[in-house]
Amino acid sequence: MMQISSTVPAHNLHKFQAIRCPSFSFRCQQASSSTFQKPFISTESTRLHLANLHKLLETQKPEVPPPTQIQHHQPIINDPKEKKGRSFLEGLNLARLWPEMKATDEMSPRHLKRLQRLLSMTAEYSPRNILGGRWREYHGSNDWKGMLDPLDENLRREVVRYGEFVQAAYQAFHSDPAMSTEEPPHTQHVALPDRSYRMTKSLYATSSIGLPKWVDDVAPDLGWMTQRSSWVGYVAVCEDRREITRMGRRDIVISLRGTSTCLEWAENLRAHMIDMPDNDSSEEAQGKPKVECGFMSLYKTKGAQVPSLAESVVEEVRRLIDLYKGEELSISVIGHSLGATLALLVAEEISTCCPQVPPVAVFSFGGPRVGNKAFGDRLAAKNVKVLRIVNSQDVITRVPGIFVSEELEQKIRNVGGGVLEENTPLAYSHVGTELRVHTKMSPYLKPDADMACCHDLEAYLHLVDGFLASNCPFRSNAKRSLARLMQDQSANVKKLYTSKAKSLTVNLSRQGSMSMSNCLPSPS
Fold this sequence. Notes:
single chain; 524 residues; Rossmann fold; 2 domains; 20 helices; 12% strand; Fungal_lipase-type; hydrolase; plastid; AB_hydrolase_fold
């Protein structure tokens, strides 16, 4: 015990004791020194010492309730700034929720603490560094050379952020999928994942396939699934000056969701190729650019109350370019699955929609092949940059065409001297630069995850967030929330994590304080 000199005045001794006591509780004990043989029990004296303490401290902190009054499922947060962005789960006592856990169990306390944070609904994000003069590199001016393996941390953050724009498109469509054939569609509400952007235009895709009327009669409640026109995405533009400064330009985003209706699935199966509608003579000499029939149908077909996707997006891009004339602009076209194929068609068309089109880049997730090699050459000639994020276990990225591995298909091409009959399925070819991830690299997903999980957009963003390099394990400081992955793909998450997550969810559901949201929080 620290010995205190008898020359220290009594009131200063109490100040010393008060400062060392974080709970501000004062217990008067008999001093070991012979100088203080009488305990300090005077109420007036205690009040005086409290007043002195108040003067010593610049601000008085709020009083903490006694331990018996603290609820273990509620975190104690004194700093309002600290409270912002923290979730309910961060204050949970895991030892009480999982009393059977021991230090020798398969999950260490450090691992449990990390799992607790990753299960929180408040997703954490890598810092948004200033891109400044290098923004063209991150937008693909050099085809992302030297930035993919290992993955540049700024590019990782931008790719994940763009993926969340597509998640917002899915969320908006599924919250209100129905469309009337008798009147123009109403305004679609989209909860953008980035508050720096403002939505400027809704986009619609229309199928040219007609179904007999009896289909709607058989399933009237599912009429929206067989409607010819559906909301497929949106155009948004960055309007926040600080974000424009950070990115080095004003960014125009075109976000497109994947297949969601019956007729869209039907269009996906129309896998024969057709000529691009505006082929020129020079391209015909080198080989005609061709694309899948169903994709082109969804892109070019007009609806009863809406223009075609091609018309809508070109009109809006022209308007925005004219509106922000003189500013540094970029166009980022983003899509998942079917949206990835439409993104290529959109990028190809807007790249020539006006004389001074800004740099155009496509960020695609889990996209199938769209056309032949001549179509890819056409995009490259128009300086359209494509970053194709591919999960090795995602079979959708290997269709249309003969269902073989890309390595085997390349060998077949090489044996044939690079010349294939245009009408054969092998004429399909991928476009752009590839960023390849693997389901097996995630410590949370089962290595034999099913097809739905390997193609799931959230699984893609989870894998990108953890990707360091092709020869490196999942990065240990990955911060993306596991909440939605646990909810949508619980059957494909390793049993160790699902058991802990279920146990946590059960305890929380009793408190009625947690519901898994389908929409990721907006980054701040």
